[in-house]
Write a structure and sequence with these properties.
This protein has helices at about 45-75, 80-120, 130-140. The chain is mostly helical. α1 (about 45-75) packs antiparallel against α2. The radius of gyration is 30 Å and the shape is flat.
Length: about 140
Amino acid sequence: MGNDDFDLDPSAHEPDEWDPESDLHDPAADGLTIPSVSTDESDAPKEVVQAFWSVVLIVNVAVLFVSLGPMLVYFLGWYQRGFALIAGGIVLFGLAYRRYRRFMRESESNANIESLSSDPGDPDTAPASAEETTIDDESDTQQ
């Protein structure tokens, strides 16, 4: 049985397939027009860009180590080097996660500080005074 034995032509009852490139076809141009997207890094704050690329770099190295380690063990029998790479990759994943969580925690605290400092007279966002906290704590212990 070869390739000539099968009829690969579409049936007359089969609907036409949707062409995803039809939206991008420009009759004035000689082909497709690809929409352009602005990728200016100045749109994001410097701290966000720095944190993003540091985590990306760490995760890429971690993926390399975690994938290369088992190959060294299986194909070459280098157990010590392979397991060291696997362990190093897992540690790097942990480091990337720690950096991400620290950045998110710092950005949330900065957002909270900015919201508190923006409207100090608002009772919903104003921090409780030390006297109110002490009075509340004493009333809780007396009950």
